[in-house]
Amino acid sequence: MQLGIEKRMVPHIPWALVVTVVLISLLGLYNLASASRPPGSVWTTQALYLGAGMVAALAVALFDLRFIYRMTPWVYGLNILALLALHKLGHTAKGAESWFVLGPFRLQPAEFMKVGILMMLARYFHESYRPTDDTYGLRRLWVPGLIIAVPTALVLIQPDLGGALMIALSSATVVLFAKPKRWIVITLALVMASGSVVIWNDYIREQGETPHYLVRSHLKKHQSNRISGWLDPETDLRGSNYHAAQSRIAVGSGGLWGKGWRNGTQTMLSFLPEQHTDFIFSVWAEEHGFFACLLLIALYGVALVLTLGVAFDSKDRFGAFFAVGAAALLFWQVFENMGMIVGVLPVTGITLPLMSYGGSSLMSVMLMIGLLVNISMRRHMF
Amino acid sequence: MTLGQNSPGRDLKDRYLVLGGLMLLGLLVLAVRTYRLQVTRFDEYSQKSAANFVKEVRLRADRGSILDASGQLLAENRPSFDLFLTPAFCQKCQEEVLPRMVALLGWDAASLPTLFDQYKTQRRNGTFQATRLKVDLSTEEVELLSAHQLELPGIDVEPVAHRQYKAPRKDKAAKREVEGAGAPPATYLSHVLGYMNEITQEELDKRATGGDTTYRLGDYIGRRGLERFYEQKLRGVDGWRKEVVNARGESLPELSRLLGEQERRKEPTRGADLQLSIDLRLEEEAERIFPGRAGAVVVVEVNTGFILAMLSRPGYDANMMSGRVSPAEMAKLFKDPLQPMVFRPVAQHYSPGSTFKVVTALAALRSGQFTAKNTVSCPGGYRMGSRFWRCWQDRGHGVVWAKTALQHSCDTYYYHVADVLGLDPIARVGQELGLGQPTGIGVVAEVPGIMPTSEYHDRVTPGGYTKGMALNAAIGQGDDNVTPLQLALLYATIANGGTLYKPQLVRRIIGIDGKVKEELQPVVARQVEIDPEQRAVVVDALSAVVNEVGGTAYRSRLPDLLVAGKTGTAQVRALGAVRVKKENMDYFERDHAWFASFAPADTPEIAVVVLNEHGGHGASDAAPIATALIRKYFDLRREDALKRGDLAAAAAVPGKPPEARTEQVPTRVAATAGPALEPGEPAGPAVPATIVPPPTEPPPPEPTAAPAPQDTGEPATPEPLTGPAAGRGEG
Q1: Which of A189, A372, B465, B573 has the greatest count of CB atoms below 10 A from its CB?
Q2: Does the structure show a pLDDT above 50 at A237?
Q3: How far from A276 is each of A52, A282, A356, CA to CA, in Å?
Q4: How many other C-beta atoms can be found within 10 angstroms of the C-beta atom of residue B607?
């Protein structure tokens, strides 16, 4: 185990990525200061989390990557155990057991699980690489399948549909990136298509007196309502669709230049639900307008490109695959979160990385960034 | 395999480009969508956002007051604290909040189920709208509630303007009850003013379809009388104030800057005041002296049609009816056999009895078949065919002519007239004078009354019209039905020489700045052809009724003022062979006592009609009230003139100031007008010159002389008629 930093590593620190991430985090703090509702002041707490997250990222960056590589199964295993323990010891909030309460802190194991899976997948694709046979058939994919399926299932039964979706999407991206055999890609495409058919049948098609649902009857009512609310936003404004409608009003009324910091009426007057967590982007859009939204989206774009750059420069498959996974996770969270706020995707409980309030989410993103820095600066070490 | 031992492979390089490209494409989708929301559809969402947080708070306009002729307040606004419940903000309402509130206020626990019902109803109707739990909280209740506000979510105390109607002072009312002069009025003029209560959902819907959206649930709206008729004028125009609210509807005044440049406030416009022609002092006097349990009094200006007093007994408590009445009390009011909710002067009709005889008398003179001097002999009744119509005085009146027939109320004379003329000439005069048709008062609902004609009887009576019906109608029985107001206007028309006015209650409408917005003018309903000579005969006879010995109302004469009038004792139930004394009859079968009059007889100013329901005899149970009111009216006229310092006007008022007051009046004047008035100075002609003694009549005695012997016998016996057609009066 090697802890520390050597002089030759310094030029390879991805400063641009670090600066972008810190910039987004600071914008997040500024935005949270507006979204805070007295008497609580979430932004100061978030600042503490950010500080702690940076320390954690630094720590991760200082570890010898080989040590982390070796410890990956343990990390993964611990996360699985944590998810299992959640069912016994978890704290129930809004109908889902997602939290460990540790004194003043509330820990959300699903957030860390996302990073754990990515590490485990990266390790698998590093180990299983055969230069002579660079495509993956079913025989070589059942292990990653299992790596993905177990935590996804555990998160799904919490129930945390959004978290499970994020794990599944980012893992699937990594698997696709590993170039599976063509028929597997086609199969996945078919699964997606059938999913669309299910949604069409259950939510869009006009059904008679005795509707024939494929999946809808198995979903929890609030989950089902979110899908239907997304598909038909004008129905039931006060009900399940209230969130979607209000967030779109917030974004739309922001205009080009926004209503001004702490002047967003949707934000200030509590029309936005969950404004400082899932719906934080509506606050930004309402108060700062279209150009600020473009800026934020561009910053995320830069972060994604730079993360993929880390992967590109990586000299081994562990680093490359982890960075690809990190980019995928970042992308899917940003895409799903902003997508639901501007009304192109259904409302799911996904936070916006670095912007939303939440210690676990911020911490897991920071750990991920720390690992990316680690990968980047140690790429010529071995 | 450890790190650094394999290269990531060249194959990955292309995939980074694809992956990165796809991701940036995804972000582009987001950016485009954001553009569409924030730039393309900005206006739409901007409006939606404003609709979210800008709440228009209504600023209610004060309702206009209702004043009497001298400016006393009859109906005004009074601040009240009302208790409201908003179901949406009331968590655990039935389990905790309402029981806690009831315990806190010390209310009866039995009131809980009603409160629960109200809560449930409102939760269905509109959970964010407040429903009124109670009006008029006491100061202690308001303090208790505001001290425990945090424990009572959804319960609010709001200041609301309520209507306050003038009521007699408590001690006076109690005193009157002891004296037994009928039930005291709960509030004055309750039927004329009307009352107010909450608008119903159906009415709101109806108004909304008519384009009127100015009312909200919980608003009070005028019911009956002036409150209903002048609702739009009294109401005023509401204003509004814009304020910032959050998603829970809570007002946040500190954030009003979010409203930006919008107009933030529009002031309400107070409703107009109504000044009535009714003089509360006269009304109070009528209430004070009216002896019966039920009945009506109408005092109307002869030359304008403006109403000066209008009593309907029993009345109701307009303050209680305005939102404080319980269903049980309401049911009691409507079940009361005395029918307090019926406005007797216009909404109820009665047999006029002998007061109708002026119509028959005018018809007789107009026909040319009777002159003032034609005589009829009264043997105590009239025989037509095989039937005998009894005169009220069994021993008969001897020889009577136009004047004495009316003076003594001799039935036989009018039977004879009807026998000669038939029904229709009489009915024509009655109709011309306004009988059988609405007076057009407008403000209150009225019944038209009935003036039967031969055509009417052919239509409604089995067997059709027969002459006997004319005989009954000629003395105000049979199917004759009049409202007290119709009768008052009829006498006023005779008094003024033939102008039938539309009765009016409102003298002027006054705007917020105290300026008169609208001065209501007398409205002539019709000019009636009355020959001045014939009129003089009738007026002379009416004056004789009161002022000459033998007149049926001689006992009620005024010493220095000539009143012209006619008594009436309307039969409610057909009499048997034996006349039963009033005291031995059931209340609802007793006769109605009428007196219809005007004064002064020579230059008439006011007409007064008194109806004492089931009161007995017109002479003893109605006439004294009418003459007392006439005296009061002229006393008030004189008093007002002296207050103004107008000595000439005071001196011109007919009649003499009463002895008791002569001491006070000059001293009051001395303070305002300097030189004192000679106390004993006659204020008007004591004896009018118009009274012409009839040819064969002994000269009338001095007004102060002791009553003549024949005068005493008249009021003691009822004034009925018998026969199968009799007794069509109503109870």
Answers
A1: A372
A2: no
A3: 20, 9, 6
A4: 30
User: Is the CB of B49 less than 8 angstroms away from the CB of A126?
Assistant: no
Residues in chain B: 731
Whether the predicted pLDDT of B327 surpasses 90? no
- Residue A252 and residue B46: Cβ atoms within 8 Å? yes
Helix, strand, coil proportions of chain B in percent (round to 5)? Answer: 40, 20, 40
The three-state secondary structure class of B552 is coil
Residue B33 and residue A320: Cβ atoms within 8 Å?
Answer: no
Q: State both tokens at A327.
A: 């980019």
User: Could you tell me if B224 and B505 are in contact, meaning their C-beta atoms sit under 8 angstroms apart?
Assistant: no
Determine the Cα–Cα distance for residues B638 and B649; give it in Å rounded to an integer: 8
User: Residues B292, B82: contact at Cβ < 8 Å?
Assistant: no
Report residue B669 as tokens. Answer: 């004047």
Task: State the Cα–Cα distance between residues B60 and B162, nearest whole angstrom.
Answer: 12
Residue A337 near residue A307, CB atoms below 8 Å: no
Give the pLDDT confidence of A262-288 residue by residue, as tens digits.
Answer: 777 777 777 777 777 888 899 999 999
- pLDDT band at residue B171 under the 50/70/90 scheme: low
The CA-based angle B303-B304-B305, given to 5 degrees, is 110
Residues of A whose CB is below 8 A from B27: 297, 300-301, 304, 334-335
Ordered alpha helix ranges (H), B135-243: 139-147, 170-179, 190-193, 201-209, 225-229, 231-235
More confident residue, B170 or A140: A140
ipTM for the complex? 0.89
A173: Cα separation from own chain's centroid: 13
Token digits of residue B6: 């394999």
pLDDT of residue A229: 62
Contacts of A136 (CB under 8 A, 6+ apart): A128, A175, A178, A179, A180, A181, A184
Please report the pLDDT score of residue B570 as a whole number.
Answer: 86
Question: pLDDT tens for residues B120-138?
Answer: 888 777 666 778 888 888 8
Q: Are B472 and B275 in contact (CB under 8 A)?
A: no
- A163, two tokens: 């978290």
CB-based contact A276:A357 (threshold 8 Å): yes
Within 13 Å and on the Cβ side, how many CA atoms surround B83? 25
Task: Find the helix packing angle between A359-377 and A42-62, rounded to 10°.
Answer: 30
Instruction: Read off the pTM.
Output: 0.64
| Amino acid code (one letter) for B151 | E
Residue B462: is the preceding peptide bond cis (ω within 30°)?
A: no
Establish if A344 touches chain B: CB-CB under 8 angstroms: yes
Min distance A305 CA to chain B CA atoms (Å): 6
Tokens 């934080």 identify what position?
A280
Cβ(A83)–Cβ(A110) below 8 Å: yes
Helix B357-367 and helix B411-421, axial crossing angle in degrees, nearest 10: 50
Q: Please confirm whether the linkage preceding B314 is cis (ω < 30° from 0).
A: yes
* DSSP characters over A36-91: --TT--HHHHHHHHHHHHHHHHHHHHHB-HHHHHHHHHHHHHHHHHHHHHHHHHPE
- The CA distance from B365 to B537, in Å, is 9
Cis peptide before A39 (omega within 30 of 0): yes
Q: Which of A253, A255, A269 sits opposite B245 (nearest CB)?
A: A269
Model confidence at B57, pLDDT cuts 50, 70, 90, reads: confident
